[in-house]
Amino acid sequence: MAGEGRVLVVDDDETVRDVVRRYLEAGGFTVEMAGDGEECLRRFAVQRPDLVVLDVMMPGLNGLEVCRRLRQTSQVPVVLLTALGEEENRIAGLQLGADDYVTKPFSPRELALRVASVLRRARMPHQAMPTELTDGDLRLQLGARQATLDGAELSLTAREFDLLAFFIGNPGVAFSRSDLLERVWGWDFGDQSTVTVHVRRLREKIERDPAKPVRIATVWGVGYRYDAVTNHDRT
Q: In which residue ranges does the UniProt entry place its DNA-binding region annotation (predicted)?
């Protein structure tokens, strides 16, 4: 693993912070640390890291609230640390805009690899795709990693942008959740609810009625399919 960038590690457990710091620094990252949510927000405002590793269960300002506040002003990639069995917190974090999560107890090496993967995808457009993708009033500029709908810019996390770009680039094809985990997230394994949450968030941002999606269709027993608006009437 080779990394490059500034990572802010936030955890109230000093031992966890130190272990994560050592693995990330060994991977080439510059690491800053914070022991609670308030310190995280203060450091973030000054240092503007490239990625935040954020523990969910902290006293005072917990990780979910910190993630919500970060998303009010920034699309910085966020990787959550959650305890095994905290499925509701993981889903809530993804709904708030977190890009990935690792469950405790975790492998520090796996976390470092996840950080490198999230940063790489946040920085680089898909090389096999054109510089721009359009579907009716939806437009993605891959080089700038900017998405607009009806001319208004969409606020997308790195994973949401990647997933939407993949969908638009592969219209009319049904993909399972495991397919999407592998081809968008780059995971050979993982919790498939991650995909479900990201699809839900995308629908809230690009569909006129998220409860009756037109673009991102559910294919029962399979997964999801993207239907280009040029192939049907949205009125």
A: 130-228
How are beta strands 51-55 and 6-10 bridged, if at all? parallel
The token pair at 216 is 């991102």
Per domain, the residue ranges of the chain are: 6-123, 132-231
pLDDT in tens, 194-219: 899 999 999 999 999 999 999 999 99
CA angle 12, 14, 18 (to 5 degrees): 125
Q: Write the CA distances from 214 to 80, 202, 206, integer angstroms.
A: 31, 12, 10
DSSP 8-state symbol, 171:
T
CATH assignment of 132-231? 1.10.10.10
- In terms of DSSP bridges, do strands 100-104 and 78-83 run parallel, antiparallel, or are they unpaired? parallel
The predicted model scores a pTM of 0.62
- pLDDT number for residue 110: 84
Task: Mark residue 88 as left, alpha or beta (left: phi above 0; alpha: psi -120 to 50; beta: remaining).
Answer: alpha
